[in-house]
């Protein structure tokens, strides 16, 4: 099990007001995008921070063979990315993200190996390992939530709710500090089971969030059929806000208003520039997540700012 510090701390997190009003203050903090942010500030315009990807290795040539037994060999890591409250300007939770680090390689992000993991039949086991790691880490944080992405293989297990309850008992994490993210695809394949499972999770106090909202064919049907506490705007809806795209602004505004009417917490992911942040603020988005604040990092590299004590307010 990964060693966990007594608090999760973030070296690259700045108050929202400072990010919005003085984007140059991110220089040296929003690494490795700081050079781009400096260029954008000097040029008097916003520039997306998405160009420099997270430093990682390509998928190994013999990935299926190398992936087999990776969990047993301790090659998986959990990285954390903070989520910022629009109301307080503080980081109120962190999303747990899986990384694979074979010997001699840089960490590999999930899009490069998840299909292989699913094909191997190990997805549910690895997903439950991430859940346990995240809950264990969050139990050492002061009053903040941890968000965990669920896989279809993991969620479809009939004992999944029992697994969640056991992990919460073992780690001592309060259910209200765990957030589980699900996608439309996972829910629509086994809708009757999914509705019951989600309600059972909410009944014990776990937060349930619809992830990647705006990318599925039946997102509205999902909101009607299943119980949720929140939804996450997909980055594909956030990206066009950089160009002040009126159509995109109206779409996001409609989703935010719908979320508010349904009393759902609305999170925007993929926030990379002050311009995007200002637009999302004006539209009433509740929470922000993205490279503008911090990249996903393993806990042992987070060293200067407590997750629950980030100062500043959103104005």
Automatic annotation (TrEMBL):
It comes from the Bacteria. Gene3D superfamilies: EAL domain. PROSITE patterns: EAL. Transmembrane segments: none annotated. Residues 60-310 form the EAL domain. InterPro entries: Cyclic-di-GMP_PDE-like, EAL_dom, EAL_sf. This is EAL domain-containing protein. It comes from Deinococcus arboris.
């Amino acid at each position: 099990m990964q060693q966990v510090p007594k608090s999760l701390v973030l070296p690259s997190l700045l108050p929202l007001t400072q990010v919005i009003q003085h984007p140059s203050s991110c220089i040296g903090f929003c690494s490795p995008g700081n050079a781009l942010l400096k260029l954008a500030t000097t040029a008097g315009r916003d520039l997306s921070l998405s160009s420099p990807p997270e430093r990682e290795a390509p998928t190994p040539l013999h990935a299926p063979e190398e992936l087999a037994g990776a969990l047993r060999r301790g090659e998986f890591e959990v990285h954390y990315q903070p989520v910022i409250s629009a109301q307080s300007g503080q980081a109120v939770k962190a999303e747990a993200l899986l990384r694979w680090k074979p010997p001699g390689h840089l960490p590999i992000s999930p899009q490069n190996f998840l299909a292989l993991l699913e094909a191997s039949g190990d997805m549910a086991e690895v997903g439950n390992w991430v859940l346990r790691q995240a809950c264990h880490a969050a139990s050492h944080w002061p009053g903040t939530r941890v968000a965990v992405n669920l896989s279809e293989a993991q969620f479809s297990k009939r004992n999944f709710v029992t697994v969640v309850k056991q992990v919460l008992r073992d780690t001592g994490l309060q259910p209200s500090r765990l957030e589980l993210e699900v996608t439309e695809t996972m829910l629509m394949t086994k809708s009757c089971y999914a509705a019951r499972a989600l309600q059972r999770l909410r009944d014990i106090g776990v937060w349930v969030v619809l992830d990647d909202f705006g990318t599925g064919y039946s997102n509205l049907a999902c909101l009607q059929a299943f119980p949720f506490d929140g939804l996450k705007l997909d980055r594909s809806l956030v990206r066009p806000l950089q160009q002040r795209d009126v159509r995109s602004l109206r779409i996001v505004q409609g989703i935010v208003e719908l979320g508010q009417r349904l009393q759902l917490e609305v999170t925007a992911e993929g926030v990379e520039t002050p311009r995007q942040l200002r637009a999302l603020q004006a539209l009433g988005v509740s929470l922000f997540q993205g490279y503008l604040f911090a990249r996903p990092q393993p806990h042992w590299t987070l060293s200067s700012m407590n997750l629950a004590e980030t100062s500043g307010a959103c104005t």
